[in-house]
Amino acid sequence: MTTAQTISPDVDNGVNVAALIDAREALEAAPEAAQFKWRATCEWVNGTHSRSTVEGFFGLGEEQSRGKTFTVEADHPEVFAAEDNAATPVEIVLSGLASCLTAGVAAVAQHRGIQLRSVKATIEGDMDLQGILGIDDEVRNGFGTIRVNFDIDADASEDDLKALVAQSQKRSAVFDIVTNPTNVFVTVG
Amino acid sequence: MRTATTVIIGAGQSGLAFSKELADRSIDHVLIERGEVANSWRKERWDSLQLLTPNWQSRLPGYAYRGIDPDGYMTMPAVTRFLQDYAAHIGAPVETGTTVSSVTASESGYRIVTNRGEWRCATLVLANGACNVAVVPKVAEGLPPAVTSLTPMQYRNPDQLEDGGVMVVGASATGIQLAQEIQAAGRQVTLSVGEHVRVPRLYRGRDIKWWMDATGVMDMHYTEVDDVKRARRVPSLQLVGSLERATLDLNTLSRNGVEVVGRLAGLRDGRAQFSGSLKNLCALADLKMNRLLDGIDEWVSKAGRESEFEPAHRFAPTRVDSDPPLGKDLTDGSVKTVIWATGYRPDYSWLHVPVLDRKGRIRHDGGVALDAPGLYVMGLPFLRRRKSSFLDGAGDDARDLADHLSAGLRRAAA
To answer: Which regions of chain B are under pLDDT 50?
Structure first.
């Protein structure tokens, strides 16, 4: 049994579902256009403080220019004897996961005809610093467990909201990045 | 070289049902079968397998189960006998022991080369089944050489396995059944779980297949679903046919000692890596099961038939460890065998007609091949209806497609 997935004209979460569905069809017909490359550059400022810049990306078979630049700063907190100029990189990862899931919730809700009034994700990751400090080799550097809680105000049943959040995880890039291994190649020069 | 108006490749339930429909329309035809009738059921399934559908649902055009156990589930020898009896009953013209090596388009239809000579036909039906080849994911390449790799096609029973632990990859009907029987044989099983479809065997006193039949879920037409491509890829239901009519789900398996882990995301340096998405995949399956049960309850209540059935209830959610393992060492000797219960696909290696998409799937509209006049396919998941790949689904699809085929012949003759 499938749930009805009609596009309701009365629901507006600010997501253009029709355009997304068109894009899906177009990219299914031309899978080479679906090959994207996302990029950022990061420059050291001082100490643990750095500034990343995000501008163009590759997709739909060509370079895409946004005509504007975003910056993301990162630093470490004072308890690490740093200046705390910005969020730590791991908090940016958590923000990335929460943003990705939240965007997914809005898109899936639009597709399923659910009007959202408010959505708030609270995210927390456990980390044992014995890993990054090299105290215990058996402790990993990264998060042990990540927990996300969604507080959603919408005209929908509890199960519908759970299904919304579950579907958002299923289609989330950052959720996949965090839960599955990825080959990373780092070069110099 | 011999000729027939229609050649059917495969003499399982799909091919036989089609044969009956053609005979009823006086269309001369032949079934080409590499082995005997019901070859896949006979040779390519594990020993303990029983049909997922109850006996009463073994219905073919002009034929049905008439035994004493309508609620039971046929063993493979029983399915084989059932289909042999059907073939005899309808007098199906089956050429057994005939293996197709090539199919090409010809001016007036199709040319089929076999180990026992050539056939020419105006119309061709591919009824060779949806499960000819076990699909093994690319990550399998990283398996350490000391670990034996098996597909469900090669697996027969636990005795065949080397002593030691077993990792079963995939938790659809095949994966959960193998995990259960291997664990029961005293081996430690690790079950790697990706997307899956959870259903109870019985609900409100009836088989889930009875409910899906009665409420129209199995009859749902391919033109009625939102996303038919997606519907055709949905994994098989987590079900087992057994004397006890027992539900087999992840909760049962964990209770029996099976170690339930996430989707196999990678195999590197001798280590299996499991995805951290297990909790969500179980939540999705629980929600989906509850939507199915909601639909059933709604149907009962609308029909005013509450008194006929046991009361509505819900099953315990899938229990997932608070901290499921994210990896497993495959070089320490604890796992001796990996079984890839990661799906099946049809074999079209002999089909030299340009009807396959880039993923090797046949391009068709409800079984009518696209851009290949007179070519039909049967028995694939959700071909025309949700029940298309089940024994009970062959009849309706064969009737529809035989009508289409017959109309095409009349147009060609006119």
So the answer is: none
Predicted confidence at residue A30, as pLDDT, reads 87
A 143-162: CB under 8 A from B: 144-145, 159, 162
Task: Find the Cα–Cα–Cα–Cα dihedral A97, A102, A107, A108, rounded to 10°.
Answer: 90
| Contact: B280, A169; criterion CB under 8 Å | yes
Confirm or reject contact between B358 and chain A (CB < 8 A). Answer: yes
Query: In this complex, do A5 and B225 lie within 8 Å of one another by their Cβ atoms?
Result: no
CA angle centred on A116, ends A113 and A119, rounded to 5° = 135
Of chain A, the percentage scoring pLDDT greater than 90 comes to: 79
Residue of B231, B275, B283 with shortest CB distance to A179: B275
Q: Rounded to the nearest 5 degrees, what angle is found at the Cα of B267, between the Cα atoms of A130 and A145? A: 35
Q: List domains and CATH numbers for chain B.
A: 2-132+346-413 (3.50.50.60), 135-340 (no CATH)
Tell me the C-alpha distance between B251 and B238, whole Å: 12
- Structure tokens that stand for B413 in this block: 């003759």
B275–A163 CB contact, under 8 Å: no
Q: What is the pLDDT of residue B2?
A: 96
Q: Considering only the top CATH level, what class is A88-179?
A: alpha beta
CB-based contact B123:B136 (threshold 8 Å): no
Nearest-CA residue of chain B relative to A144?
Answer: B323
B239 in Cβ contact with B172 (< 8 Å): no
Of chain A, the end-to-end C-alpha distance in Å amounts to: 56
Q: Class of the A15-86 domain?
A: alpha beta
Does the pLDDT at position A3 exceed 60?
no
CA dist B359 and A140 (Å) reads: 39
Q: pLDDT category, A9, cuts 50, 70, 90?
A: low
More confident call, A1 vs B391: B391
Amino acid B362: pLDDT: 96
Mean pLDDT of A118-122: 98
Closest chain A C-alpha to B216 CA, distance in angstroms: 9
